Amino acid sequence: MHFAAQTHVDNSFGNSFEFIKNNVYGTCVLLEACKVFGQIKRFVHVSTDEVYGETDENATVGNHEASQLLPTNPYSASKAGAEMLVMAYGRSYGLPVIITRGNNVYGPHQFPEKLVPKFILLAMKRKPLPIQGDGSNVRSYLYCEDVAEAFEIVLHRGEVGHVYNVGTDVEKRVLDVATDICRLFSLDPSESIQFVENRPFNDQRYFLDTQKMKKLGWSERTKWEDGLRKTMEWYVRNVDWWGDISAALLPHPRMLSCHVVEKDHHPSAELDSEQNRNGYGE
Question: Where is the NAD(P)-binding domain (predicted)?
Answer without folding.
Answer: 1-231
